[in-house]
Amino acid sequence: MSLCNVKERFAWLDALRVSACFGVVALHVVAPLLSSLPFTSIGWWTSNIVMSLISSCVLVFVLISGALFLTRPFHEDVGGFFGRRLSFVGQVSFWTVFYILLRWMSEPELTWGHLWNDLWRGVPYYHLWFLYMISGLYLITPVLCWCITKITRSIRRLVVICSLVLTCIMTMAGSLSSFLPCHNIVFLFLPFVPYFLLGYELFIANISGKITDKICLGVFLFTATTLSLVVFLCFSRNYQGGLVAWLSGSFSPFTLVMAVCIFRFFHAVKDAKFLLLLARLAPLTLGIYVLHPLFIRLLAHAGFPGSFVRVEFAVIVMIFAVFVWSALTVWAMSKVPYIRRLVITVR
Q1: pTM listed for this prediction
Q2: DSSP 178
Q3: Which of 292, 337, 342 is nearest to 319 (CA)?
Q4: Fewer CB atoms < 10 Å away: N or C end of the chain?
């Protein structure tokens, strides 16, 4: 990929995608530690701070998708749009079968009933739910593109704001009680539609001169700090479980603010040279996403970090080790014909 091609494909969005992918890797490394380490330990605080900084990574992916897909007139060529998504369907199908076989060989207690239930919920393996969710957003993209052309900007923004508030309230209620039904593969994408639309609105908004990169970064860090303190307060008062999961999840106001700030920050510094370099990794992000749980699992089975490294250092080392290991593996796989199709992001 040449530097010229990177510039033509919105390098800052590609760089943002790589950053969000790194955040997902970090999320899956530190999430188990929050519930297993004493909340007064340095290792727990390291995990808590990392979790707070990267908790918006999933929303950032959705914002990027909205920015890229809803700015194109896909409603005028529905057949062509879905034709270009067939490769993604093949990728999702392959990795679903791969992880089902992995679970079947490594989980003796797994039954067909459990497996079918996980498939119905869209989680054949814990990270694959995102691929099913984004597939749902792809399905309704032509409809949303058509709606965007028929609705004024003020009405669109009102709809986005109201739906974001409603989603926040309903998911909070669902995390604290059985108010909402269980998620399933058919409707998994619905709560993310407002964020998909928000990505489009942020992309076309002309506010670069009013909101600088320093303001975005400052608000992001302040919100992340507040979130880490709120999570600590919940743990200290034994309010773990649904509440903490919601606070650090995709639908909390903390996460939304951080996702918007990091999106606007990358847009404000879009000409920075380091973004052009980071953007070169963008085609590898799908492969990194689908493969990284394997390397987390391998390191865990190998006993990492054992007694060699303090937990707080091991967390950081493991995050970078898994990301680099995944990226190098995907890069090597991309050099093999046919195998390349399983791990490379196709636009």
Answers
A1: 0.91
A2: S
A3: 292
A4: C
DSSP assignment of 41-104? SHHHHHHHHHHHHHTTHHHHHHHHHHHHHTTS-GGG-HHHHHHHTHHHHHHHHHHHHHHHHHHH
**Cα–Cα distance, 168 to 130 (Å, whole number):** 19
Q: pLDDT value at position 244?
A: 83
pLDDT at 177: 52
**Long-range CB contact pairs, 131-134, < 8 A, 24+:** 131/91, 131/92, 131/95, 131/290, 132/92, 132/185, 132/188, 132/189, 133/188, 133/189, 133/192, 134/61, 134/62, 134/65, 134/189
Which pLDDT does position 175 carry in this prediction? Answer: 65
CA angle 167, 81, 347 (to 5 degrees): 85
Nearest to 68 by CA among 131, 165, 162, 144: 144
Which helix (H) or strand (E) segment holds residue 212: the answer is none
Tokens for 37, please give them. 């380490």
How far is it, in rounded angstroms, from Cα 24 to Cα 20?
6
Rounded to 5 degrees, φ, ψ at 9 are -105, 35
> Do 307 and 294 contact (CB within 8 A), yes or no?
no
Residue pair 319/29 in contact by the 8 Å Cβ criterion: yes
Cα distances from 238 to residues 55, 231, 242, 317, in angstroms, run 21, 10, 12, 30
pLDDT average per 10 residues of sequence, the chain (347 residues): 45 94 96 84 91 96 95 80 88 96 91 92 94 94 91 92 91 63 80 95 76 88 96 83 84 95 90 85 95 93 69 87 96 93 81
Q: Are 57 and 30 in contact (CB under 8 A)?
A: no
* Among 149, 157, 137, CA closest to 201: 157
Distance between CA 130 and CA 62 in Å, rounded?
A: 10
Scanning the chain, the segments in alpha helix (DSSP H) are 3-8, 11-36, 42-54, 57-69, 78-84, 86-106, 112-121, 129-150, 153-176, 193-204, 213-236, 242-247, 253-268, 273-278, 285-301, 311-333, 340-343
pLDDT at 268: 86
